[in-house]
Design brief:
alpha+beta; Phenylalanyl-tRNA Synthetase, Chain B, domain 1; Phenylalanyl-tRNA Synthetase, Chain B, domain 3; seven-stranded mixed sheet
Length: 842
């Protein structure tokens, strides 16, 4: 909300010694946060000048310029740049000007050298042009950032005769030194989208009396009510209050007063015509949107109703919009003439021939207006206010204010009578203990201060014993409970009075075991060259489709959100690969050829037979039983670790040609994580989306699958626009951490000699090597390590079988092994291998 400071001073009588900075600081303390102080667009020697002569001079380029002598006052007529033969030069400054809508004797605005004009973005200097030294510039309204009017539509701003004298300060004359506050208005403070609302807080902050522009006699009762333009409201829920008032004999050619046009511009709106400008001015002043209809274009009564199927409207922006049955409309006998509270229709628009005007001001249901604006993707200043909530007591007063300004500046008369349908809803009183502000804020607030603060905010207050009962004003929709009253009191007392007391940290705890191990996992992933990413935990059916996850897969069972951020992502994710592959695609799309990323985060799956989550109040801490009920309703949400790689794993360079990332690299990341936690994982081939069959593996912990890794399926690669052969993996980190020993593995070192044995075994091709390795590791207590070092298929092995060669290390902790012990251990190894279908290769 842009608030011209001079306008605010007019409504509050703010003392001149209160600077704009002080005003902004105090309003920020009142929850009206300052975004920017917009300074004056002009600075320096900007003065009034009288044109003494204007001699046209045709130029070679086809243009005709005026060589002018301008009287800028006796103190400033001395040229900034000495001119040869100055004794023959008439008084005044020489200025070159390309406009032609002025002549000798006219009063103009002259920017002398040293003047800064924000509209041009530079400082005026004396310079030679068209064969003359132009010692300044005669200004147009555009160059002065002023709204254009009839006197300046062809160029230079010509001031009315007798309005000033040469040499007068034009900045003060035209009010160009005005400063404007740009305030951030929170959605719950809709009243501050008006000068009246900001002025009310300003008056309260500085202890001033408000000059209320809505202080107009109440006309909603009496014999003339209902005698203006007839109205019928068919949807009272969508429109609780609707008023009309009529003006006749209006002169559509009347110009907008310069002061009004200037204020509209400072508030961020463009001057259009008197009727439109008055409507916008009152909306900015009071916060009540209103609309003016050309009475001659209306057909029958005005009707407020919902849209019917197939209806459409051409709005004021000349866009034809199909209407939804949920849209609230303003209609007449010809059909829709406006989308209520959002934008009017073109069929009844005010134009240059309008003499009779019907003024509408109404109070609409904010939710209805909000949904209509989003539905039509239509944003307007009126819609912005109506969707947040407007004071329902204002419509009759706002329409009167519009009518008075139209007649004052455009002639005509206000026809007697007012039509009002409906009445403003009553506000429910709110009670609080007198000591609640002190207990909540930590600031000692006495009863008198609390009552005074609430009354200053517009509440009707009653004090009964130890209870304060306040009825909120009609414009404060956000005050609904005792803690809202505390906030209003604290705004007046001052947030800066709240003591800063830091809570005392409990000592001796530090990180939990799980937190320490998750941090270790993060370090390991970073050490493996993976960059951490953080993605949103939301997914939808389309995301799971892109991963190739089938309809019967458990990962399809999502926890759905009651109010999702996006209709395309209505649930919580069941796999981190949704976000990780999305981040991988984003990075590749931005030109990164070699990418390696990881994420540690939660995934979510519904808890079987989970009850609905209870909703408790916020006035107390839940009991242990209530906390248990909340926990029982929560979904399963274990931590997972996921990673993805594309491009080269070992980058090309002077050391070599590089190496692309393969499925083996994805599996190696999972192994590395397990090793860092001293957990041994088995690895077996698997067929599972989103991985390529034959190039993917499952990670098993004591026979239970806790993760997968491998090369992505080509369809998944194409769906995510990734490079070919991209790889990824995901592990259940919670299961891995649960299996990690409390302390690292016991350092059982033996100083006795090691015995090295190689064993070549033949197995069926579909038997995983990990299964054979596990059998060998458990065959004898003398086995220290088993490592697969060769896999052979060929003529020396039967078809459908393969040879696996293992390097074994045998050692006893307390003795040197004898030949007989070694032979027995070897026999045990062969026997254990036979248990998984392996035979000794001969």
């Amino acid at each position: 909300m842009k608030v011209p400071v001079s306008w605010l001073r007019d409504l509050t009588g703010l003392p001149a010694d209160v600077t704009t900075e002080q005003l902004a600081d105090r309003l920020t303390a009142f929850d009206l946060k300052l975004e920017e102080i917009i300074g004056a667009g002009v600075s320096g020697p900007l003065v009034v000048g009288r044109v003494l002569s204007a001699d046209p001079e045709p130029q070679k380029n086809g243009k005709t310029i005026n060589w002018c002598r301008v009287d800028v006052g006796p103190e400033r007529n001395e040229p900034a740049v000495p001119v040869e033969g100055a004794e023959d030069v008439p008084p005044g400054r020489g200025v070159v000007c390309g406009a032609h809508n002025f002549g000798p004797g006219d009063l103009v605005v002259v920017s002398l050298p040293g003047t800064y004009l924000a509209a041009l973005g530079f400082e005026i200097t004396a310079r030679k042009t068209y064969g003359h030294v132009s010692d300044g510039m005669i200004c147009s309204t555009r160059e002065l950032s002023l709204p254009e009017d009839a006197s300046s539509e062809h160029g230079i701003l010509v001031l009315p005769a007798g309005s000033a004298e040469p040499g007068d300060d034009a900045i003060a004359l035209l009010d160009l030194g005005e400063e404007t506050l740009d305030l951030e208005v929170n959605p719950d403070r809709a009243y501050a989208l008006s000068l009246r609302g900001v002025a009310r807080d300003t008056a309260l902050a500085f202890g001033l009396d408000l000059v209320d522009p809505a202080d107009i006699a109440d006309e909603t009762e009496g014999p003339d009510v209902g005698t203006a333009y007839p109205v019928r409201v068919d949807d009272a829920d969508g429109c609780p209050v609707f008023t009309t008032r009529c003006v006749s004999g209006f002169d559509p050619t009347s110009p907008t007063p310069a002061w009004m046009a200037r204020r509209l511009e400072q508030a961020g709106m463009r001057s259009i015509s008197l009727a439109v400008d008055v409507s916008n001015y009152v909306m900015l002043e009071l916060g009540q949107p209103n609309h003016a209809y050309d009475r001659a274009k209306l057909r029958g009564d005005i009707v407020v109703r919902r849209a019917t199927g197939g209806e459409q409207i051409t709005t004021l922006d000349d866009v034809v919009r199909p209407l939804d049955p949920q849209d609230l409309l303003i209609c007449d006998d010809s059909g829709p003439i406006g989308i209520a509270g959002v934008m009017g229709g073109a069929s009844t628009e005010i134009d240059d021939a309008t003499t009779d005007i019907v003024i509408e001001a109404a109070h609409f249901d904010p939710t209805t207006i909000f949904r209509a604006g989003r539905r039509h993707r239509l944003s307007s200043e009126a819609g912005k206010r109506n969707e947040r909530g407007v004071d329902p007591q204002l419509p009759a007063r706002a329409s009167r204010r519009v009518a008075e300004l139209l007649v004052e500046h455009g002639g005509g008369t206000i026809e007697p009578g007012l039509t009002q349908v409906g009445t403003a809803p009553e506000r429910a009183p709110v009670s609080m203990p007198v000591d609640l502000p002190t207990r909540i804020t930590g600031v000692e607030v006495d009863v008198e201060t609390a009552v005074s603060a609430l009354r200053g905010n517009g509440c009707e207050v009653e004090l009964e014993g130890s209870t304060i009962t306040a009825t909120p004003p009609s414009w404060r929709f956000d005050v609904v409970e005792p803690y809202d009253l505390v906030e209003e009191v604290l705004r007046v007392v001052g947030y800066d009075q709240v003591p800063s007391i830091l809570p005392t940290a409990s000592g001796g705890r530090g990180l939990t075991r799980d937190q320490e191990l998750r941090r270790r996992v993060g370090h390991v992933l970073a050490g493996a060259g993976l960059v951490e990413v953080k993605t949103f935990p939301f997914a939808g059916p389309a995301d799971l489709d892109r991963l190739g996850i089938g309809a019967d897969d458990d990962r399809r069972r999502q926890v759905l959100l009651e109010n999702p951020l996006s209709a395309q992502e209505p649930g919580l994710t069941t796999t981190l690969l949704v976000g990780v592959l999305r981040a991988l695609s984003l990075n590749v799309g931005r030109g990164h050829e070699d990418v390696a990323i990881s994420e540690v985060g939660r995934v979510f799956s519904p808890r079987p037979d989970a009850p609905d989550a209870p909703i408790y109040g916020v006035d107390r801490r839940p009991t242990p039983q209530e906390l248990a009920a909340l926990d029982a309703a929560l979904p399963l949400q274990p931590f997972h670790a996921a990673w993805a790689l594309a491009g080269q794993r070992e980058r090309r360079g002077w050391a070599g040609p590089g190496r692309p990332a393969t499925w083996a690299d994805a599996i190696a990341v999972g192994r590395r994580l397990a090793e860092s936690l001293h957990v041994k994982l088995a690895v077996e081939p698997v067929r599972l989306a989103p991985f390529h069959p034959g190039r993917a593996a499952a990670f098993l912990l004591e026979g239970v699958v806790i993760g997968h890794a491998g090369e992505l399926h080509p369809d998944v690669v194409r769906a995510h626009t990734l490079p070919e052969r991209a790889v990824a993996g995901e592990l259940d980190l919670e299961a891995l951490i649960a299996a990690a020993p409390e302390v690292g593995p016991k350092p059982d070192f033996s100083a006795y000699p090691v015995v090295k044995e190689d064993l070549a075994l033949v197995v069926d091709a579909d038997v995983p090597s990990a299964r054979v390795q596990q059998a060998l590791e458990s065959a004898s207590e003398l086995v220290e390590s088993v490592r697969l070092f060769d896999v052979y298929t060929g003529d020396q092995v039967q078809q459908g079988r393969r040879s696996l060669a293992f390097a074994l290390r045998l050692r006893a902790p307390d003795r040197t092994l004898k030949d007989a012990e070694i032979a027995a251990a070897r026999e045990s190894l062969v026997t254990a291998a036979a248990g998984v279908g392996a035979t000794l290769r001969t």
